[in-house]
Write a structure and sequence with these properties.
α1 packs antiparallel against α2, α4 (101-121) packs antiparallel against α5 (125-145) and α4 (101-121) packs parallel to α6 (148-164). The chain starts with a helix and ends with a helix. It has helices at 2-11, 18-44, 48-71, 101-121, 125-145, 148-164, 166-191, and strands at residues 75-78, 81-87. 76% of the residues lie in helices and 6% in strands. It is globular. By secondary structure, it is mainly alpha-helical. The relative contact order is 0.08. Strands 1-2 form a two-stranded antiparallel ribbon.
Length: 192
């Protein structure tokens, strides 16, 4: 259905904008393929802890980049490697490693859902504290991007998560997650 909408948009677009439409179409197809590969890997993997660890390390790398970008006064670069330069492209908004506020916010939201799942099913105190800390920092950086879409996606995806896992979580744990999320977003909005 979404691919059909892109195809219809491309068919009725002026010739001058075809290159832009092809870029969006290519991005859509590649994003779908990455999602399909990750979904099948996570579903068929006998131990989901390996997938969870990959997501945690990916999150840590994104958070390190975002922290360096927030602390960098203008532009931070390794001599001779301009491709790895860290700097703000927008004065007041965090763009992250993807050089786009929306992509950074969306990536952090998707990672947050995996962390929320791991937090809600985790049994060890130390690992649950790690997930909670990463969730708090993710929400802080989602707000720092200033992206409305990422924030709305966080709210809607969180609500869908709670609805989907309402039986496994139970009412008490779901209420704790809602209260914690409201408190965490309130603190993050004050800090940002």
């Amino acid at each position: 259905l979404i691919f059909g909408a892109y195809a219809a948009s491309f068919a009725f677009a002026p010739r001058d904008t075809w290159s832009d439409h092809l870029i969006y179409l290519f991005s859509f197809v590649t994003n779908f393929m990455v999602f399909y590969l990750a979904y099948n890997y996570a579903r068929k993997s006998p131990d989901w802890r390996y997938f969870r660890n990959i997501v945690i390390w990916l999150n840590v790398l994104i958070l390190i980049y975002c922290t360096l970008q927030m602390l960098a006064p203008d532009r931070l670069a390794v001599p001779g490697l301009s491709e790895l330069a860290i700097g703000r492209t927008r004065a007041t908004r965090l763009v992250g490693p993807f050089n786009a506020t929306a992509a950074t916010a969306d990536a952090l939201v998707l990672i947050s859902l995996v962390l929320l799942y791991a937090y809600s099913l985790g049994r060890e105190i130390l690992s649950r504290q790690l997930y909670l800390g990463l969730l708090c920092v993710n929400s802080l950086f989602i707000l720092a991007t200033g992206n409305r879409g990422g924030f709305l996606l966080l709210l809607l995806a969180g609500a869908m998560f709670l609805w989907s896992f309402r039986i496994e979580l139970g009412k008490a744990k779901a209420l704790k997650i809602v209260v914690g999320a409201v408190l965490g977003l309130t603190i993050a909005s004050i800090l940002v």
